Amino acid sequence: MQEPFDLFGFQLNEQIYQYSDSSNDGLFQNNNQNIDAISEQDNALILNQIESPPPQKEDIDVVRILNFEEVKVFIDELICPICSYILIDPRICSDCSQGFCKQCLTQWFNKYHLKSCPCCRSISNEPDDGSKAPKLLFKLLSKLKISCKYQNNGCKQAIWYESKEKHYEKECEYKAIICQYCFEIFLKMESETHFEKCQYKPKKCKWCSKSFSYYKHQKHQDDCSPRKLTCPICVQEFSIKKMEGHIQFCFPKKQLKIIKNELQESIQEVQKAKQEIKESIKEILEIDMFIRKQKQKCQKKKQLDEILNNEIINSFEQPVCQQKDVDPQELNQEQVDFQEHHLQQQIKDASIQIQEFGEEQKINNICQEEAEFQN
Ligand SMILES: [Zn+2]
Ligand SMILES: [Zn+2]
Ligand SMILES: [Zn+2]
Ligand SMILES: [Zn+2]
Ligand SMILES: [Zn+2]
Ligand SMILES: [Zn+2]
Questions:
Q1: Ligand 4 centre from 50 Cα, in Å?
Q2: C-alpha of residue 206 to centroid of ligand 5, in Å
Q3: Residue 235 domain-assigned (yes or no)
Q4: What pLDDT score does 215 carry?
Q5: Ligand 2 centroid to 7 CA: how many Å?
Q6: I want to staple 82 with a disulfide (CB 3.0 to 4.6 A). Which of 68, 73, 104, 145 is the partner?
Q7: Which residues have C-beta under 5 Å from ligand 1, the single-atom ion?
Q8: 137 with 24, same domain?
Q9: Residue 100: count of CB within 10 angstroms of its CB
Q10: What separation in Å is there between the alpha carbon of 224 and the centre of ligand 6?
Q11: Owning domain of residue 299
Q12: Which pLDDT value is given to residue 135?
């Protein structure tokens, strides 16, 4: 008995086929190989590598035919009995002339290990993918005007059956794209915007300008030989290789410089203190000198006072002594006048000296006040 047409089984297999072909694992390995290969190429080239998964057979439902009225007479000839969609890459059964999609027929033969026509069940010696379709079938297919397979994404374009591949590959901006770096899906028109913000795209090393995958970039940065490091002590740049040797030399040098600066500061402080002491000694000597002068002045004044006192006493005592020796009545007028004049002169001298002494005293007081004020 022949097996019934197992549409469910076929679709299931097809899904498995799609899955194994576009699983993340497979893509990821592919990506790594690609990125290694492009590590020295620029971003423009990388952008071209954003690709959609391998093309699957397109399922064109009859409802997508835009000129149905024109083609409805022969539309049955253009439908594959295996997938129920419009023929893609048509093949035929040489016995019943039924058309099939090439992919559908190949899978059918593989599934049942028998080259039996799904329609007439005849077993033939045809090639594994059926017989070549006649030109007429291609001509009928070329009459179809269909909507774009990305119409759900927004494409409003009406396309001829023959030029659909060209439209999908080159023209349609609504084509779904999967980023090979982050696996995000977006429209073709968004690919440039996506690439700009894609976090997993290859990055250029800023030291050697080579591009590396997101995963290898960081590791490369750590040991990229042209990379420069900044010495934390002297802020000069050195390559990674030279830095270790430099630090061993730069650190003690810096320490020495610090100690030298500290020593210099200490020396300056000592010199400053020395200068201050010198100035203090000078001031003390000046005060001492002033006190000595004052003392000398005081002694001189004392001597003057004594002389003055003695002279006053003498001047009063002298006439008394003379009175004892001479009789006052014997003194003539001339002598009296002389005595009187002599006394007046002495009183005048004494009052001048007293006045001078008073002024000197005043000056001394002022000097003393000034000295006290300065102290
Ligand atoms: Zn088919
Ligand atoms: Zn057949
Ligand atoms: Zn389109
Ligand atoms: Zn991405
Ligand atoms: Zn580098
Ligand atoms: Zn340094």
A1: 8
A2: 7
A3: no
A4: 83
A5: 18
A6: 104
A7: 80, 82-83, 101, 104
A8: yes
A9: 26
A10: 20
A11: 250-374
A12: 94
Instruction: Please tell me whether residues 74 and 147 are part of one structural domain.
Output: yes
Angle value at C-alpha 303, between 298 and 306, nearest 5 degrees: 125
Give the pLDDT confidence score for residue 248 in this predicted structure: 86
What is the CA(164)–ligand 3 centre distance, in A? 9
The CATH code of the domain that includes 77 is 3.30.40.10
Please state the ipTM of this predicted complex. Answer: 0.73
Ion ligand 3 residues within 5 Å by Cβ = 148, 150, 155, 157, 172
pLDDT at 334: 82
pLDDT band at 150 (very low <50, low <70, confident <90, very high): very high
The closest ligand to the CA of 116 turns out to be: 2
Residue whose structure tokens are 């913000």: 197
Instruction: Name the band, by pLDDT with cuts 50, 70 and 90, for residue 11.
Output: very low
CA pair distance 144, 101, nearest whole angstrom: 16
Residue 135 main-chain phi, psi, to 5 deg: -60, -35
Distance 247 CA to ligand 6 centre (A): 6
Give the tens place of pLDDT for each residue, 173-226: 999 889 988 999 999 999 999 988 998 888 888 888 888 888 888 888 887 888
197/270 same-domain check: no
Phi/psi of residue 145, nearest 5 degrees = -115, 120
Q: Is the pLDDT of residue 147 over 50?
A: yes
Question: Cα separation of 162 and 168, whole Å?
Answer: 12
Sign of CA dihedral 9, 14, 17, 19: negative
Distance 303 CA to ligand 4 centre (A): 116
Based on the fold, state whether residues 259 and 129 are members of the same structural domain. Answer: no
The bound ligand whose nearest atom lies closest to the alpha carbon of 91 is: 1
**Angstrom distance (rounded) from CA 374 to CA 286:** 12
CA nearest neighbour of 124 among 112, 116, 136: 116
Say yes or no: 255 and 182 in one domain: no
Q: How far is the CA of 159 from the centre of ligand 3 (A)?
A: 8
**Is 2 domain-assigned?**
no
Question: For residue 38, is pLDDT > 50?
Answer: no
Q: Is the pLDDT of residue 122 over 70?
A: yes
**Each residue of 177-192: pLDDT tens digit?**
899 889 999 999 999 9
Predicted pLDDT at 138: 95
Please list the residues that pair with 229 across neighbouring strands.
238
36 & 101 share domain: yes
Identify whether 220 is part of a domain.
Answer: no
